[in-house]
Amino acid sequence: MSYPADLTPQQARARRRPLPRHYDENTLPVPVEDHDHDGPSLLKIGAIGLGAAAVTALGVLATRAVVDAIAGDDEDRPHPRSRDHLAPRYANLDDRARQDMRSRARSLYDEHDEHAAEIRARAEREARARARQRKERELRRRHARENGRGFLSQLTDSAGKLATNITALVATANSAVDGFHQIAGRAEGMMRDFDHTADRLREFLGERRSPPRPARTAQTNPSSGHPRGTPPDLSPDDLPHSKADLTRDRAHRL
Description:
This protein is mainly α. The chain contains six helices and no strands.
C-alpha cells in the first residue's frame, strides 16, 4: 500500500475522488508543492531596496543642481580670507611703531592682572575676616550654652556676693566698735590706778624727803623772769578746772 507522501503529484491527482458536477476545477485550491518560497521573496526585497537608494541619490543630486543654479556659479561664491592678513592700520606701521603698540598692550595686560590680583587678595582677606567673626560668634554662643548662665544669673550672683561682703563688713565694724568700748571702759580704770599709784609715790617720796634747807637769796630765773625757787604766776586758764583735768595733768607729769 502506498501512502500519499510517496505519490507524485500526477498520481495523487489521478487517484483523487471524482468531483461533483457543479464544482469548477479552476476554483479548487492549489495543491502544496515541494519548493522554497524564500528565494524569490529575498530577491524582490533586495531589488526594491536598491531602487529606493538609487532614487534617493538621484534626488540629492537633482536638489544640489537646483540650488547651484539658483545661487550662481563658482566665481560668485565668497572665498575664505587669508589668516595671515593684518589689520589695515597695523599693516601700515613700521617695526618700531608695532613694538611700541605691543609694549602698551603688554603694560595694559600687566595692569589688568595686577588689579585682578589685588581684587582677589582683598576678597580673600574679607572672606577670612568674615569667617573669623563667624567663628567667634559661634564660640561665644557655645560658651553661653555650655555655661547656661545669662545676664540675669550673673547679676544675681554679683548681688549675692555684694550682700555677703557688706554683711561681713558690718560685722567687722561692730566687732571693732565693741572692742573700742571695752578698751575705753578699761582706760578709765587704768587712769584711776595710775593716779592712785602717783599719789602713793608722792606720799612715799614726801615722807623720806630731807629737812628743808635755809632760805637763800632770791635769784631771778633768766628763762622765766621769776625769782628762782618760787613757782611762776599761773593764769586762770592754766589752772585745772575739774578732776579729769587734774588727772590728765598728773598722768602727764608721771
